[in-house]
Every structure is written in C-alpha cells, then in structure tokens.
Amino acid sequence: MLSEKRRNQLLEYVRHRRSVGVEDLAELLGVSLSTVRRDLDEMDERGLLRRVHGGAVAIDDHAPRENSVDERAVRNLEEKKRIAARAVELITPGSTILLTGGSTTAQMVPHLSAVPDITVVTNSVAIAHAIGTTSETLQVLVLGGLLRNLELSLLGHLTSQALADIHIDLAFFSAYGIDPGYGILGANLAEAETDRNMIKAARHLTVLADHSKFNQRSAVRIAPISAVGTVVTDNRASDEAVAALRARDITVIQA
Question: For the HTH deoR-type domain, which residue ranges apply (predicted)?
C-alpha cells in the first residue's frame, strides 16, 4: 500500500474511532508496528491527530481556530510594536536569546541590532530571514526540524535535539494565550511539544502577550504559569490579570 494512501486510511480510522491503538492499526493496515508508529509521529507533527502512549486520538474539531499569519500580523499591531521594543531592552549584551515564531516576537527584529554581541536562536524561518535581510552583524542559529508550511516554523524531534547543544539565557515566547491561574496556552497540538522543549532550554522565560491574549481560551497548555519569569504586555491589559501575575512573583512590564 502506498504510504499516502495508508496514512489517509489511518487518519480516517482514527477520526471514526476517536482513539485507537498501534496494534489495531497495524492489523487493519497490514503493516508493521514500527511503520504505524512512524506514520503516527509524522501525522502528529502535521497536526492531523494527537499521538498518545500506545496509539493516537482524534483532534477535537472544536479546538480553537488559529488565525492566519497575516491576520495575526496586523491585529493589535501598535501594541505589539511597543511590547517588542520594550522586550528588547531586557536583553543583556553578549547573551544568547531564543525567539519563538509569532507576530509579536517578529516585531523585535528591527530593534535587535541595538544590543551588541548577541546570538539569536529561533525555530522560525520567517524571523531568521528577516534578520538575515536587515542585519549584517547579528549571529543567528536556526533550529532544524519539520517545516510547518503556513507558519514557516520548524517542529519536532530534530528541533528539540538541537536545543540540547545550545545554552540559552533568555527565551521570548509569543503566546497564543495566557491564563494567570493556569499557564501559557497554545492553539496547535503539533507545536506544543516543541514549544515546551524550547521553554525548558532557557534560563529565563519572557512571554510577550498583548491585552487580547488574556481573553484567549484553549485546552492546550504549553507550560504552567510557574515557568514564566516575565510578562511584557500593553497598557490595556486588565488590572486583575496584571495583579494575578504579580501575586505569583512574575515581573509584569506594560508598554
């Protein structure tokens, strides 16, 4: 059976059954357990299903809709620019920083050259390209991995493996949402594990979140709120949300 036809049949079966084991899939498709595991891993990274121990489950059709890159780039743009400019002020000369993909972290790029002797690590092809075409001095390390086409971000095992060899002082995370009582929220299951590994690789985590991010809801938690060191937001963030973060010893900066 051709691999694409096999994967389509596998996906249809998972969606119909909602959850299924590796052994059942191997028997249904007439292939080895290792083949099924490889298929499931790849389809999990593509966001088509969720890989769990011993099998896979269907992704909820009612999961939050992720806006397109273009939609996010213009939403609350002025706030994102102020947040990004303020975030760059937190960078110490000579440090290694991590920028995750996102519309707010992308706004940091024009300001990075003002900080001397820094190294930028990113899993975003778009951010790497933006730096490469605007700066002749910034050193950029691009994490490898599976390309998430529409987002131009790199995901998966190779991304996480590369992180093991890099010392990161400060990570800047452009969050889908943030809940002061629960943590950093994501919209895409395929990105969640890579995001978690990037957060763990840094000594300090700074979350960039405009005021609208406090109203987002999602079942996908990237990290508990205890993992956050600093939040940079705008002056329209609610007093309640800001107070709740500060009560957890999180530094909150409003730009």
Answer: 3-58
The predicted structure's pLDDT at residue 62: 43
Cα separation of 162 and 44, whole Å? 20
Q: Closest by alpha carbon to 5, among 31, 27, 24?
A: 31
C-alpha to C-alpha distance for 9 and 28, rounded to whole angstroms: 10
* Residue 158 sits in the same domain as residue 41: no
Range of the domain at 43: 3-58
Q: Could you tell me if residue 63 is inside a domain?
A: no
Q: Is residue 49 part of a domain?
A: yes
> Cα separations (Å) of 132 from 101, 111, 150?
15, 14, 20
Quote the pLDDT of residue 211.
93
What is the distance between the alpha carbons of residues 255 and 252, in angstroms, rounded to a whole number? 10
Torsion angle of C-alpha atoms 195, 201, 124, 118, degrees rounded to 10: 150
Q: What is the average per-residue pLDDT within 52-62?
A: 72
CA 35, 159, 210 angle in degrees (round to 5)?
Answer: 125
43 and 109 belong to one structural domain: no
What is the mean predicted confidence (pLDDT) over 177-191?
Answer: 86
Which residue do the tokens 């000579």 mark?
Answer: 94
CATH code of 28's domain:
1.10.10.10
Regarding whether 168 and 44 lie in a shared domain, the answer is no
Q: Which positions ≥6 away from 12 have C-beta within 8 Å? A: none
pTM: 0.73
Share of the chain above pLDDT 90, in %: 53
85 within a domain of the structure (yes/no): yes
Q: Do 154 and 185 belong to one domain?
A: yes
With a CB cutoff of 8 Å and minimum separation 6, the contacts of 200 are none
Taking Cα atoms as reference points, which of 80, 88, 21 lies closest to residue 55?
21
